[in-house]
Specification:
The structure holds two protein chains of two kinds.
Chain A: E1 12-22, E2 34-40, E3 45-52, E4 61-67, E5 97-105, E6 110-118, E7 131-141
Antiparallel strand pairs in A: 1-7, 2-6, 3-5, 3-7, 4-6
Chain B: H1 8-11, E1 21-34, E2 39-46, E3 52-63, E4 67-71, E5 84-85, E6 97-105, E7 110-117, E8 123-136
Antiparallel strand pairs in B: 1-8, 2-7, 3-6, 3-8, 4-5, 4-7
Classes of the chains: A mainly beta, B mainly beta.
C-alpha cells in the first residue's frame, strides 16, 4: 500500500481518544424517544473517524440519528440498524461505521444524537452492550502528535503486551472503574491495537487505556 | 505517522474535495416495506438542494429477507443491467459495498430505485447510500 501521511493543522497535535455514551449510567425508559442527547467534548477538539454500538438486539434504541457540531444530521433519515431479531444485517453492524470524511467537533462542544424508541439494556451492563463509542483523535494546540518523533537511533519490532485482570466480586461499572497497570519492560512501546478477551465467567468488561506520561 | 495495523480511515484522510468545494460525510437513507413478491419500479430518492452528493458506497442496514435492487445515476441511467440480489451487495458499515469511481448527483437531483421483494414474505428494508455532501464554498 502506498504510504499516506496525514497532516494536522500547524501547531496542533493529535492523540488517540474515544468518547462513549453508556446507556446503563443514564436511565432510559424503554420505548421512549430521546432527542439531542450529548457526549460533551472537552480538553481539545475531537475528530470523529469511526463509531460503533448498534450491533445487537436490546442495544440502546431501535433507531438513531447522530449530528455534527452544527447539528446537521449524519443521515437523511433515522437509521434503524438495531431492528431485530428478523434483520439479517444487524450483526454486520458490529464492525462499526466509518465517518468519511472525518467529522470535527470543537472543544467544549458535543456529539449530539437522537435515540428513537429506546431499548435500554438491563442494569448493570452485564452483557457489555448498550453503548455508543466514537473513535478518533483529540486535537490540541501546542501538543505533538502521537507517537512523537524519535530523537535517538532505533528500530521497531512487533511486540505484544498481555495482562490478566481479576475483578472483585460484585464489581460493576457503577463502582467507578478498576485501575490496573501494565509494566512496559526494557524498551519504549507504541500501542497500536488493543484486544480484550472474555472473562472466565463469560461476562464482558469494558476497557479503557490511560497514558502514563 | 500512520498505524499500519489500523484501517486507513482511522489513520485519517485529509480532505480531498476539489478547489472551491468542501465535502461533508453524509448518507441518504431509503426505507421501504415490501409485501411478498412486490415489485416497485421508478422509486425516487430526492436529494437536498443545498449540496451535490457523491455516492461512494451502499450498505444494506435492514433486510428481513432476500430482495433485489437497481439504482440510477443522476441522469436516470441504470447502474446495472438487471436488478442485483441483495446478497450480492454485501458489505459492512465499516467495509461497505463500494462504488468506484464514486457517482456525483447534482443538488436537488434524484436517485432512481427499482426494487423487488424476493423472499415471498413481508420484507422490511433499509438501504444506506453512503457518501459525501459536496458544498460549494466560493
Amino acid at each position: 500500500m502506498e504510504d499516506y501521511t496525514y497532516t494536522t493543522p500547524p501547531g496542533y497535535g493529535d492523540t488517540f481518544y474515544v468518547y462513549a455514551y453508556d446507556s446503563t449510567t443514564i436511565p432510559l425508559v424503554s420505548g421512549s424517544t430521546y432527542n439531542n442527547l450529548r457526549i460533551l467534548i472537552n480538553d481539545g477538539d475531537f475528530i470523529a473517524r469511526w463509531w460503533r454500538g448498534c450491533d445487537l438486539y436490546a442495544n440502546i434504541s431501535q433507531g438513531i440519528q447522530i449530528r455534527d457540531y452544527l447539528q446537521n444530521p449524519y443521515w437523511s433519515a433515522n437509521l434503524q440498524p438495531f431492528l431485530q431479531p428478523s434483520n439479517q444485517q444487524s450483526l454486520l453492524a458490529s464492525t462499526g461505521w466509518a465517518v468519511l470524511p472525518e467529522k470535527w467537533y470543537p472543544d467544549s462542544g458535543y456529539i449530539g444524537f437522537d435515540l428513537i424508541s429506546a431499548l435500554p439494556n438491563i442494569t448493570p451492563n452485564v452483557s457489555g452492550i448498550g453503548q455508543l463509542a466514537f473513535y478518533g483523535v483529540r486535537r490540541r494546540k501546542g501538543l505533538l502528535n502521537d507517537p512523537q518523533v524519535y530523537t535517538y537511533p532505533s528500530y521497531e519490532k512487533v511486540f505484544d503486551l498481555q495482562t490478566t485482570v481479576t475483578l472483585p466480586t460484585g464489581f460493576s461499572s457503577a463502582s467507578g472503574g478498576f485501575l490496573t497497570a501494565l509494566e512496559v519492560p526494557d524498551y519504549d512501546f507504541e500501542c497500536r491495537r488493543v484486544d480484550g478477551f472474555g472473562g472466565s465467567t463469560g461476562v464482558a468488561a469494558t476497557l479503557s487505556l490511560t497514558p502514563a506520561d | 505517522m500512520t498505524n499500519p495495523i489500523a484501517p486507513i480511515v482511522v489513520n485519517g484522510i485529509n480532505n480531498s474535495a476539489p478547489g472551491g468545494y468542501q465535502d461533508q460525510s453524509f448518507t441518504y437513507v431509503y426505507d421501504v416495506t415490501l409485501t411478498a413478491n412486490q415489485v416497485l419500479q421508478g422509486q425516487v430518492l430526492s436529494l437536498y438542494t443545498y449540496a451535490d452528493f457523491l455516492l461512494c458506497a451502499i450498505v444494506i442496514t435492514v433486510q428481513t429477507g432476500l430482495f433485489s435492487v437497481r439504482f440510477t445515476d443522476g441522469q436516470g441511467y441504470y447502474l446495472s443491467n438487471v436488478l442485483i440480489d441483495s446478497y450480492n451487495l454485501v458489505g459492512t458499515p465499516s467495509d461497505p459495498f463500494a462504488l468506484l469511481p464514486p457517482i456525483l448527483y447534482p443538488a436537488g437531483g434524484k436517485i432512481g430505485i427499482d426494487i423487488t421483494e424476493g423472499s415471498g414474505a413481508t420484507n422490511v428494508i433499509e438501504i444506506a447510500l453512503v457518501g459525501m455532501n459536496r458544498y460549494r464554498t466560493k
